[in-house]
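By convention, the token line describes the chain's fold. To illustrate:
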Amino acid sequence: MTERFIDISLPKRGVHCTARLLDDKAPVTCAAVWEALPLSGDVYHAKYARNEIYALFEPFAAQEPPLENPTVTPIPGDLCYFTFNGTQLGNRAYGYDTTGADVRAGATLVDLALFYERNNLLINGDMGWIPGIVWGTVVDGLEEMAGACNDLWRAGALGESLSFRRA
């Protein structure tokens, strides 16, 4: 199979990086994401996992992918896929608008995440271990993206989006 690549960007900050899909390790997840592209949504910076930015999306696969190529310790450049229901994210401590359409009881949400630095641990105080599917790896532009991600943490994410498109 030919390698496939995507472009991940923070448009307001004018920063992007390129990632290679891990079709050999997470074929179902890669196919689901590839077919759904382009995707863009409000960006969030993780509270618990540490060096992570992510966006939440309505489900886009006909069936949610199985837990293929799982991790609870993502490394810099990992792209992870998570599935949550609104009840799991309904705690106001997460910072979401729990009255909006994005986070509501019974709703399924897809979380596409980029890990940009080391020392990440996918454990949540409310739910415990949260394994993610590693479906891609950044191959170019991670250092510049990491600087922008750190800026998100310090300056805030309001008004910024996280975009994924075919490269």
